[in-house]
Amino acid sequence: MTKILIVDDNPDILAALELLLSLHEYEVITANTYKDALFAVERLQISLVIQDMNFSQGLTSGNEGKTLFYQLRQVKPDLPIILITAWTQLETAIELVKQGAVDYLPKPWNDGKLLELISAHVGSTLQKPEPVTLVAESAAMKNLCQLAEKVADSDVNVLITGPNGSGKEKIADHIHQHSKRKAMPFVKVNMGALPAQLMEAELFGAEKGAFTGANQKRIGRFEAADGGTLFLDEIGNLPLSGQMKLLRVLQTGEFERLGSNETIKVNVRVVSATNENLQLAVQQGSFREDLFYRLNVVNLDLLPLKQRIDDIIPLAKHFIGSEYLLSSQATASLLAHQWPGNVRELENACKRALVFAESNELQAIDFNLSEAQPINRDEKSIIVETLKKHNGVIKHAAQELGLSRQALYRRIEKYQISE
Modified residue 4-aspartylphosphate is at which positions (predicted)? Predict the structure, then answer.
């Protein structure tokens, strides 16, 4: 997904731009200081920057924006930069356009113009995504996938439950790709990542002026998903006011944008997900019982990874790719780990292993898992005891430690271990 960096010290502007761009399937990174902006461009794969001309309250000269522009160009000379400017900084903005900025837009900006500029310089992100590959070797996962495919043919709402990082979004995508709606949009909303005051605008849209920063009419996710599937992740975070509106849409397919009396009708299939106990939330009064039953027509419960042991190694092989292998020690370490972060933790561990690997055979220590070494033991003493056990034979000691010989030599030098 295309990453766009927005730089502004006004939280309302950040929220408005983030809402607009996320509706068009861009991944948004925000920064409210020039240091954060530079860090993002240096460390992340940013495709385009939208920057204000000032980042300190009370300043109107545009000099801060000018400085940031030239610093960003030093870091990444070809990076497209769009300037958002007030009339007092217009002359400076024009100067920066002559120096290579894509364009400048006055405040309040025109949403259509902004989207056209972005599309012209990074391309459209609304192409149909590739189907998600599900790795399912355990009996529990195979059964869940079969049930998901069976449910996909119908239009009933599905609630996917399971711990964080277990793969709920992948299951939702799998349902959509096997449904009659697969040629239509699959729209995702992470309810846990949205401020409460923006949730209704995100779901149902907003008219111009409906809230601070709403400079143009905005289409909500329900409209964007018309004819397709809407995936509501972390549905337990939806406040009661939003729950009432969501219930009405599920019952009638109708809603109104914020700030409008015009009724809009859509045909959307809702798949939701949560790691919370919604039945308990119903009992506590924080989640509507009628909405719970509307969402939970079919429940797919995704087990934590530690209860799907047969999936661990196939998933790891999927994440590391065909060019890498797992040593026997690495395999044992992966199977021994409890995976509190589930599949997401495993994916991150595999990414780390690829960074630190010294050959195409990944070792246990490359994954940095606690089970790779005995608990409450320091690394130096482990190395010393293992070397003694193998009479100083580096090859055999390295194999037991899950290290390459070069890595073991470096640790011997680091800890000044004598013969």
Answer: 52
Identify whether the C-beta of residue 223 lies closer than 8 Å to the C-beta of residue 24.
Answer: no
Q: What are phi and psi of 407, to 5 degrees?
A: -65, -40
Q: What single-letter amino acid sits at 295?
A: L
Identify the bridge partners of residue 274 per DSSP, sorted by sequence position: 161
Please tell me the distance from the alpha carbon of residue 166 to that of residue 311, in angstroms, as a whole number: 11
Please work out, in degrees rounded to the nearest 5, the angle formed at the alpha carbon of residue 117 by the alpha carbons of 113 and 123.
Answer: 130
pLDDT value at residue 246: 92
Using CA atoms, how far apart are residues 146 and 208, in angstroms rounded to an integer? 45
Instruction: Read off the CATH number of the domain in which 406 is found.
Output: 1.10.8.60
- Work out whether the CA dihedral 110, 114, 115, 117 comes out positive or negative: positive
For residue 335, which of 137, 49, 129 has the smallest C-alpha distance? 137
Residues 158, 74 share a domain: no
Enumerate long-range contacts of 139-145, CB under 8 Å, 24 or more apart.
Answer: 139/310, 140/303, 140/307, 140/308, 141/303, 141/308, 141/311, 144/171, 144/300, 144/301, 144/302, 145/171, 145/174
Domain boundary among 62, 91, 122: 122
Task: Say what the pLDDT of residue 179 is.
Answer: 94
Report in angstroms the alpha-carbon separations of 11 from 6, 52, 201, 396.
11, 12, 16, 58
Q: Kindly tell me the sign of the dihedral angle through the C-alpha atoms of 371, 374, 379, 384.
A: negative
| Residue 129 located in a structural domain | no
Closest C-alpha among 42, 113, 60 to residue 82 = 113
Instruction: Give the whole-angstrom CA distance, residue 104 versus residue 90.
Output: 9
Domain that holds residue 281: 139-301
Instruction: Residue 159: count other Cβ atoms within 10 Å of its Cβ.
Output: 23
pTM (predicted TM-score): 0.63
Low-confidence stretches of the chain (pLDDT beneath 50): 124-128, 371-377
Do 347 and 417 form a contact (C-beta atoms < 8 A)? Answer: no
Do 98 and 198 reside in the same domain of the chain? Answer: no
Instruction: Retrieve residue 353's tokens.
Output: 């292993």
Domain finish residue from 94, 122, 150:
122
| Residue type, position 367, single letter | F
Answer yes or no: is 132 within a domain: no
| pLDDT confidence of residue 6 | 94
